[in-house]
């Protein structure tokens, strides 16, 4: 039997500390032809038919190198099944060089089917390396191990290298659907690998990987292609595939070495179609996903290393141990021809990345190395050099052109709301952003293409890893695409000294001093030798778009203390961008308080005859700048405009919504809508109720959308009079509305008591008089950084007179009813304090509305107990008053704002409806209408009512 020697500096004595192994046997304790597999306390016999072992529930201990080894000897159908409630196998031998819990060899198939499976291989012997807790191997006949337990735990712990599950070339390990598997690999002074794949690994269930080491490198998921000499094409070896319904969680932590969540190496192919979560933390460099190198021993086949992440993806690199020593913090890293695709298949998955992106290219080459050797005596010998950089994604989004020469590159797509990237991007990186996504640019970024199709690109990164000593970043984009993205930058237009930083490749040093190529940290406790350091003085963040893909406009927002403090900046010119003449930066407003925002004043000029970097000059120097004749343009900030915020307008909009609802319920109310066709009534008295639902909208600064529900009940008595009858009554109503504003929302209520008298003349005349008192309550709240809320309360009263006459048009029971109405209302003022301490004072308001209209109706079954009529109506209305004023005062600094508003003007209403007698004593009515023109529009109002007579 061949002896397998696994060694490395990357995977030092690779596979030495392991629990499960699928592949060729390692120092087997029996001959290749053995059919009897000894264990510590039992014998398992494999016959020509599959050997079945059920209900294993024992603890196996001792100094065995391998507790269970299943050798099929190339014979098909040799299977070992572990079933029942629990399978527990523990190899804690201390004398063997390599410990393994179970090995499947040369075509064997092992099934873990018990409800619970625990496979351990541990050792505290400093000379012991544990090779695969679970191990599959076999050069001629690949072996298979299937995890089909509801819960499975694999644990490898030792002094040297530890590997949880190892799958060898041509073999496979499968984590089946509806299962939960957890793999631990922990080493005291060497490398740890939770799952190492040289064959095929398929994940359909939930898999949790943990790699932890105190003295080496920790890697969660590793795949590499082991070619067997020179090959014309590759097989499925070196591939890891996670299904769409899978859930893969990876944690890698190294105390003194490097931590890598996922590594695709030497032709390794990793595809994750399900949910993926990666956390990596190290005192050295840390990486989320790393792809590098191809396998040159395979001809006429694409053997570039790749990682395709096609599901919801969350990668977080812990920066706590890295920032102080400038260690690499790479969420995605691609080098030497490897590539990574993140959400590049158009599926719109949630992508949340905390860490940098890097891919060789655009003048950057990764010189860090992690070499890995796997020597497998009579199989093959593969040497792997691993560069630790950042990540990449596969295909350039939106039709971009990624390298076709085998270079590394990154295609990173954020196209689902809530996706984000917190980090820098350098090299052959292609990034897509969309509406609802955010990129916080935490350091200088120099990359290929940005498809800015909306979303927020924040160079100020106030919320993530901001440092006062390094407040400014430079973004260099080879080609800019897209439209309508928001760029946020830091500037300091009054600081003539600027901030000095030292840049060496992709790394930025700040706060210290540079002497030659030696950089000394600020506290003098540490020095570092740099390669090609360059010193810069910066006055703000800077955007450089070397090329653009057609005309585009993006928004620019500026964070500058001078603007916040309303300082005098006249005569200052600060350059913040250079782009082609197709690119326009439109200034956006930055809110600095609840009352005010500021918007930068920007100036576009020809290209200045200097490098593309930030610059601050005064008026005299600006007038003497030298300009270059090119298609590039420089962009400057020259000042700011102070703007009233949408937040401050919300109380005024809320008052407008409350006033509009109150006016609509009072002035626009008519006898027909309130009580239907009273001429059908012959009672001495009656009760009635009605319910309505309506929508009111208004645009502009004080715009709102208000949805109202109203209910009213009433009672009246009939009294005979000369030439007609009077009905005198009382009514109680309640209106409730929900409003939305430009930057807020609210609720409003109106409780009213009304007295009315209605005269119905014998010749079709009528007069309707209404006196009403109301109590309004108006709650509002605003959103965002300066969120606030408040409640206003107002008393109101109104009086209305309506006159009309119903006249027959012909003998076919068609009627027309001209109408006229005049309503006066008064809304008393109010004063209240918001949650944030702002005083809001509203002045009293008056309303005087006149209405002229008509109703065209047709009677059916007239003069019967089933009388019915349907109608159409139209009205012209005009508000003669409708002005209001509201004042806000910030009690902290006595800043004041006053707003004047008017809802005067003319509008029109049209509607249809019907009135009917259900029986002698019950009258039902329905009315539908909408309005046109005017300050406030009513897209719809639907009302129904019923009257009972006594």
UniProtKB/TrEMBL annotation:
Keywords: Signal. Pfam families: Autotransporter. Residues 680-950 form the Autotransporter domain. It comes from the Bacteria. InterPro entries: Autotransporte_beta, Autotransporte_beta_dom_sf, Autotransporter_adhesion, Autotransporter_pectin_lyase_C, OM_autotransptr_brl_dom, Pertactin_virulence_factor. GO terms for cellular component: outer membrane. Residues 1-22 form the signal peptide. SUPFAM superfamilies: Autotransporter. PROSITE patterns: AUTOTRANSPORTER. PANTHER family: C-TERMINAL REGION OF AIDA-LIKE PROTEIN, PTHR35037:SF2. NCBIfam families: autotrans_barl. This is Autotransporter domain-containing protein. It comes from Phascolarctobacterium faecium.
